Fold:
Amino acid sequence: MSAAPILAAFRQAFAEAWAGGAGALLPLGFLGGTAVLVPLGIGSDTDTLSAVGPGIIWVSLALSSLVTLERIFQADVEDGTLDLWLQTGAPMAGIAAAKTLAHWLAAGLPLALASPLLALMFQAQASLELLVHLGLYALGGLAFFFWGGVGAALSATVRRGGLLISIIALPLYVPTAIFGALAMTGGIGSDGAPMLLAASTLFACAVAPYAMAAALRLAAD
Amino acid sequence: MFAGQGEQAKPLPVTLLTAPLLTARDLAILRGERVLFRGVGLSLSPGEGIVLRGANGAGKTTLLRMLAGLTRPEAGDVARAAPHHWIGHKEGIKPQESPRGHLALWAQAWGSKANIPEILEKMALKRAADVPGRYLSAGQRRRTAFGRLLLEERPVWLLDEPYTALDASGKAMLDAVISSHLRSNGAIIASMHDIAGFPVTAEVTL
Amino acid sequence: MWSAFANPHKFLKFSAVAAPLFYGAGALCILWGLWQGLWIVPKDEYQGGDIMRVMFIHVPAAWLAMASYSGLAVASFVWFIWRHELADIAAKAIAPLGAVWTALCLATGAIWGKPTWGTWWQWDDARMMSVLFLLFLFLGYMALRASMDSRQKAARAGAILAMVGAINVPLIKFSVDLFTSLHQPASVITADGPKMAAVYLAPLLVSSLGHGLLFGGLVMTHMRTEIRQRRIARLTAQALE
Structure:
């Protein structure tokens, strides 16, 4: 048993993410659209916008992960690729993790990279802190993608599975959303929040692949 | 090597020297609450070509998926003594993958050093080699999938309706690939409606 | 007696007697608890006056919400390991009932919160949030099961999700606890014994026991229905062959 199937799965998923869904552009457009609509909806007051900005970016990150994830395993079920990945002899958890990671790189990380720009649109002060936030969005987004991946794997055979993914993934997103927001507001009790965010992301990376693997074996059955 | 629906096993040539590559015992599967089939067993030895037959919906694909380890049987078990190739109904080609890219990807996944241009040539895919999957015809997709069989030598081939969507030259090409596999002591289990040209050594009827 | 939970025939026999007993005893406990709670115990002005009497439904509902998710997780785990069909039937029966009690807990909490805290819903409150996410876990479980095309797949998908949810519950709880709580600290179960006045404690415990019994009875009835429905489906399939 070697890591070759896992690397190949990563390569295929990465190519698919860029080819199928216009890569990072679609989620970025989604994020940008949300970010532009919010000031139109709640008014252009500088203080309000800078207060809700980080929260809006977290919400958009969660939502765009759900939008991206709907197809990642469903497409594999439909075109027969899942059958092949299940028969490589490599652990399915590794393959599922590689695919999730590839989609995070193609859709989640660009969102985090774009976050300083959006933060400025939400009237945040231009400072190095925005880069720290970028790191937090990247980390939190990774947890979103892994838990969302469990929802995606469970609903891979379900038509209109996107709706199901959201309701399955929502409670699993809670710790990340809370730790992430806490780490940014810098209020009371937020000292350890970045570490907690990192820990909960690691937890997601450790647990979610096994659940995805079990769900994918079911999807192929 | 044949037993279906509780009928008596038909005696078949016994290969004394070689252990079976794949054995299935007493398989049963439910679809909802309906018993799709039960008591199905078979054993596949080197050089054998077993054909699965049955009406539409009898469970040929399901049985093949069980033999491949994709579908979990409700009862019974499958023992796989050798690695296998799987060619299902759906070819497993991504819309952005060309035949060349598809074969290169699976060569990487399986650690195969096969000569991909040669395989493309053999499958008559030279002209379509770099066309993305979404533009391939059904026959070209089948040929690409069969190319996987040549990436790595594996004793057991599990083929679901292999001749579907192939033209006359495609069928001849597949016949050649199959008979060379059987001659080199490989074995095949295939579901098929029309067995013209396929070197059948046994049949399992569902 | 444990074999009654592994064998559908024994379960049907056992529950035929047990379910009505549970209903009867549950009703007695709930009625006594409500009578005590609504008419006998003195009201506590600090907790909002007469409205604090909703506690005798709210607290049992909260306990049951948590207990039922634990039950769902255990049943799913048992099914995943041993593939006992009865464990899946139990999980399927627990989910909607657990969701109902969880919703009851949220509703009574809001009713209690409005006059006491001045708001129906308090985002800062850890317990409210935890219970809300518990409700989402139940709803997600039910939605997933409903969207699978056979009972075998529903069982497998449901078990995976329930176990993923169960290992996340402590993390969700912990993260939510980071938010400051408006509730007073735990007052029934503490290290130095119950702090709550005995006059409230007795009706509360009896009422909780009653809700538990009612819940148990309903789960058994649901399971009996499900066992028979599966039997009907099986017989229908056989008859059609």
Chain B has two domains: 2-83+155-205, 97-153. Strands of chain B lie at 2-3, 22-31, 34-44, 49-53, 75-80, 84-87, 156-160, 187-191, 202-205.
